[in-house]
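Crash report, auto-generated. Payload:
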Amino acid sequence: MNEPVISIQNLSRRFDQKTALDNLTLEVPRGSVFGLVGENGAGKTTLIRHLLGLLRAEQGSVRVFGLDPVADPPGVLSRIGYLSEDRDLPGWMRVGELIRYRRAFYPGWDDAYAESLREAFELDPAQKVNDLSRGRRALAGLLVALAYRPPLLILDEPSSGLDPIVRRDILLAIIQTVTDEGRTVLFSSHLLEEVDRVCDRLAMINEGRLVMSGELDAIKQAHRRLTLRFAAPLSVCPALPGVLFAEGAGAEWSFTVNGQLEQFRDEAARQGAELLEDRSASIDEIFIARAR
Amino acid sequence: MHLRITSGDGLPIYLQIVNQVKYLAASGRLAPGEPLPSVRALAEQLLINPNTVARAYRELEAAGVVVTRRGAGVYLAEGGSPLAPAAVDKVLNERIDMLLAEASHFGIGLDELARRLRERGKILRSDKP
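Recovered output after restart:
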């Protein structure tokens, strides 16, 4: 019963000479809101395209609901609602036509739900998709991804380039989706504040490699931000245990630390430094420390 | 119930909720017996994961600040502050020690600090939702 919705084992992918994904292993449990973060070009979209069966696993394996998305596209795609970063909508269709067109593919389409989303998203059925603003187009894409109540919702950079009001609608849709028992959301984003609010799990990818993955609370608990004041100004960053990232100048330096906290504090004291601040690291601080 | 969630300072979101509900209860802006929003409603209001709200409510219930009535929602506990005096001392003293240390870093004396505390108290009391 507790089989993960997504299971990726040792997945590697190359495009020509460039490594896009490098021996990546990742599981997304049922009912989670899973955030995929990383810089542009880190491999997030390539990973998502494997989940949709658009790319075949060169090495390793990809399973969604226990199925291979390349071998069984209908079995997988009928259970995924997907919003791509460039939205992929037929621009010449009117909103009403788009809704009827997508409806034909999904036996589980819920007309009343689709209509309530259309009203909430303020979409005019007579308007052409190409004439919609960027934000409305994203919401139209979200509507046709949600209306058959898929057990897995995948959103690739859903908020990218959108104004705060539309972003709010999208976050609300994510929250409402996961509140329905057992449904799972995977979304990639570079807006860490959103990821921090909405996700309960997180994976960070850098240059195709998994940098860290796990429960967001545990990740945040494992990283701390410490600020030290040394007795005299230092021209180079002092060496201390457990440090992922350091910044500062003169006598005052701040460190993002993972593990080895006692050793860090002991060594800082030995070097005559005073501890000015010792707190949980924010998601931005963790991201910056891990992106190096 | 008006809460503010920030992402910048590393304080976990569930703890931000716990702290702010405790503050609202202590300052009387939430009355004993008053209902709190459902997990779903608060998650949608604050745009945060519902599990985070559920965790905050569990912590608040374990601390005796709220009670859950089966099928009827979450309410502020009756009977004022549920914390034992020793626990109150511990929580407050930790905060006061930190504040004193920081004030002394900035060269702010006790009288000036007390004046600032009263000033902030006035602002917070008038900051109605």
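Post-recovery validation: The two ends of chain B are 7 Å apart (CA to CA).
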